[in-house]
Design a protein that fits this description.
The complex is a heterotrimer of chains A (115), B (155) and C (536). Chain B has 155 residues and is α/β, with parallel strands linked by helices. Chain B contains three helices and seven strands. In chain B, strands 1-2-6-5-4-3-7 form a seven-stranded mixed beta barrel. Chain B is globular. Chain C is built from one helix and 27 strands. The longest helix of chain C has 4 residues. Chain C is elongated. Classes of the chains: A mainly beta (115), B alpha/beta (155), C mainly beta (536).
Amino acid sequence: MPPNVSQGCQGGCATCSDYNGCMSCKPRLFFFLERTGMKQTGVCLPSCPNGYYGIRLPEKNTCTKCKADCETCFYDSFCTKCKRSFYLHSGKCLKTCLEGFENNNHTMECTSIVH
Amino acid sequence: QKAIIRVIPLKMDPTGKSNLTLEGVFARVAEVMPAEGKLLQFHPLSLCNTSEDEHTVRGFITIVKLESPERDPHPCLSLANKAKLAGERGAEAILFDITDDEGAFYQLQEAMGLSHPVVLISGRDAELLMEMVNNNQEAQVKIEVKEQPKWPEYD
Amino acid sequence: AASTEQDPLPSCTPLCRCHRDGVMLWVECSELGLSAVPGSLSPFTAYLDLSMNNISEIQPHAFYQLRFLEELRLSGNQISKIPWQAFSGLYSLKVLMLQNNQLRRIPAEALRDLPNLQSLRLDANFISLVPDRSFEDLRSLRHLWLDDNALVEIPIRALNNLPALQAMTLALNRIQYIPDYAFQNLTSLVVLHLHNNQIRSLGMHCFNGLHSLETLDLNYNELVDFPVAISNLGRLQELGFHNNNIKAIPEKAFEGNPLLQTIHFYDNPIQSVGKSTFQDLPKLQTLSLNGATDIREFPDLTGTTSLETLSLTRAGIWVLPRGMCRQLPDLRILELSRNQIEELPSFHCCQKLEEIGLHYNKIREIRADTFEQLLVLWSIDLSNNAIQNIHPEAFVTIRSLVRLDLSNNHLATLPLAGLSGLAYLKLKGNLALAESFSKESFPKIRVLEVPYAYQCCAYGACNSFFQPNSLWEAEGTGPEGNEIHKRNLELFPGHTDSHYDPDMDVFQLETEESKLQPSIQCTPSPGPFKPCDYLF
């Protein structure tokens, strides 16, 4: 093993190094760049952290950022939970719901107004 | 052209002992000029077009520890373009630790006129800097242009 | 209040890390080497993470008391089957993560007791069998991940009764065909990912019923024909079918999709495109069509008024319509390299134009009105054409020009008016261009490429000729007298075996002012056989 490769590779790593953490992941795990303070290290996860969604491709699985108003998302154009003060409607985060819907402050979603 | 790299921890150690004065060399891919900013480490794979620009505040100095080429056989971008991307993402300067990738020196000698200086460090100086990074010790970095001796060496 | 194992809350499970969220408890037990679901779980658990352990089996009723549990993570274990009643009692469960396990079929029976489930992750398993009634009771299911499995067909009947489903991925499977009406009851579906399958053909009506679909991803498949089945997707905004084998895009291809904003179809052997294929797409912002060699005419873009980036390279276009800019008022980037263009219209009406790429065409001249009044144009690439003359006022009204590439043309002179802001100028290959440029001509220049070395002398390139770069070597003391860390670093043994050339086909640019008078890189730099004096 090259001298600088850390013995303590985090569980999901295929290759890693002392300073950079994971350089590649075991199959089917998502590669994520985690920042703590001034350090940025690679980690390998079964699912991406909040604020990111996973893209699976044959050669590599990576985490990509959701939109700014979104806390968790399925895809960059489809949010599954909005950040505070936004209401979720069909994958979009709205400051206020559209006509025919009302702001549900409990679920923070737009609920259809049933006439 | 050589560079003097002064590293001043933000959480001042009263004796100032932990200040570092290191040396590197300016890469010709970019301007030879001084720079200053807060030290911020970037993973080599973070400087790819597909990766996130998660840092929004400008005015930092990037430090990237390059891995040996065989451990990154298909780099997403050339080192020159990684340096350019770092500058576009707000870096005032880019420090490459090339201890494990000696070939990096040659990849960064073709003039591309990047306006943020690129400095290469290696060996003991790099180790000292990376130790600070590893301990997550926040620091301010000043890069200075080391004056050439009056009479340049002739062959 | 956060707890640790040393100071456990009464109901925190040994080894796990817990923290309280009001009355509820978040229990984190990932990567602990657990081989079974812990027994002593608090009934007030709202979030339970058991991912990345060695759990291979889940006992019936394993989570029976957890009536408040909203999120259960079992990803990254060895689970190959899940018995009926494994999840019984989880009335509040919204998110269930089973990705990265060993499942070969959908655990249909176990999913029967989850009335409030919204997100179900089954990706990265080995699922090849989806029983018809797999998702029968999941009335609230909105997000379904089935990507990276072994599906060979669309599980049509299993998907027949999911009225709330909004997002689904079936990517990275082995699906070869999508039959008609495959998704007909998924009326709420907004996002459908099918990339990285082996889809060769589509039923004409395969997307019928997807009234809400906005994003369709067919990238990395084996489609030979354009997916005409999209004509029913009236709300489609984002369409991808890049990396397929499609040779033609017919007229009226997108007639049924007026809301399209992005279409990605690069890396297809597209030879021909209908002249009005991209008409009436008022939301389309980017159109890139490269290598369609059969295209002879510039496409009719009437009604496609929001286009900002148009890339149409490696085709056979030989003339640009005079009124093209009136159709494209928002155009910022125009990339028409490697065509057969001989003459340029005036781009005057493209007022937002920032970058123009016209390299590798047959352009002969630049007129006074070609780039007239383009106030935000900062980059022009006209290299590798046949330009003999440029009107003296061709660049006068361009305020922001920073990069100009005129390499490999037939220029004998260069009009300087309007070029004072240049940082990058390339003129090499214009063999008749012998004049020397004074430093005042380009006060902001950074990178200058000229036909002859003597033309670099005005830029101090002669001085560096006598001062070879000193390689990096150990140094004793620094100028300030305090010890600079010594190292014996013979780093560069003198041979240049750089196995990697910088990516130079993209013309690099930095527009920001540098802090010091920048060093100017002028090439070719003079040398013993390329003297500073003009010998002829």
